[in-house]
Amino acid sequence: MKLRRMSTRDAGFDAALAALTRYEASQDAKIEATAREIVAAVRARGDEAVLEFTRRLDRFEAASFAELEVPRAALGAAPSVSICAHAPAAASAEISANGRKIR
């Protein structure tokens, strides 16, 4: 690995730092592998797998899949927030495309 010395006084420092620290989650092999594991487990074991991953990843203990459901009234009362508004453009397009596939 080549180390590069930078100074906050250098012209273009902010852009150079942003380029060095940019993280593209869609390119992370571990994230891809975990997502594949989750999908395979849910396909094979259904709700049981969803509950397992909810416990493991969300640290939320639910006794049944029904406990994870959000009532329609609560959905209507919730503020509208788009995950895409906070994601990089490429990821936003991918999230939107995948959302259309789910529906």
Task: Write a structural description.
With 103 residues, the protein is mainly α. It folds into two domains: 47 residues, no CATH class; 33 residues, no CATH class. 56% of the residues lie in helices and 0% in strands. The protein is built from five helices and no strands. Helix 2 packs antiparallel against helix 3. The longest helix is centred in the middle third of the chain and has 17 residues. The mean pLDDT is 79.
Q: What would you say about this model in short?
A:
The protein has 103 residues and is mainly α. 56% of the residues lie in helices and 0% in strands. The chain has two domains: 47 residues, no CATH class; 33 residues, no CATH class.
* N- and C-termini, Cα separation: 45 Å
Unreliable stretches covering 5 or more consecutive residues: none
- Large-scale geometry: elongated
Structural class: mainly alpha
Mean pLDDT: 79
Q: Work out the number of β strands.
A: 0
- How many domains? The number is 2
Count of DSSP-assigned helices: 5
Using the CA coordinates, give the radius of gyration. 20 Å
What is the H-and-E element order? HHHHH
Task: Kindly estimate the percentage of residues that lie in beta strands according to DSSP.
Answer: under 5%
State the major sheet.
none
Helix residue percentage: 55-70%
Question: What is the topology?
Answer:
Layout: H1 13-21, H2 29-45, H3 47-58, H4 72-77, H5 89-102
Tag the structure with descriptive keywords:
103 residues; mainly alpha; single chain; 5 helices; 2 domains
